[in-house]
Amino acid sequence: MDRRHLFFPAAAIAAAGVLARPARACDPAEMDAYITAVANAAVEPALAALDAALPHATSAERALAERGAALARAAARDGDPKVAVRTAAALARLAGRIEARAGLSPEIGVG
User: The pTM is what?
Assistant: First the structure.
């Protein structure tokens, strides 16, 4: 007897059994804590790089850095990883520009 014709009914019964189970709910507090941790993991290194570059920053760059740092910290705290990561990238670029202008960053050469 050919058993291949039994595959689809058996698969349908298995799928129905899986779908009939109630979905497990995630703990909202645990999810919020994880999202905050992810956002902080992006923000903290950018802020550390910026802090190292700030002694060489102009007053306009300092003001931009303060606004950006406040925004990044608030976004990380409030669980908005998209804003936190986007702002962290902008702050890291700002730190790089400050370091490059001040001649602090090593020259990247080929070979």
Answer: 0.67
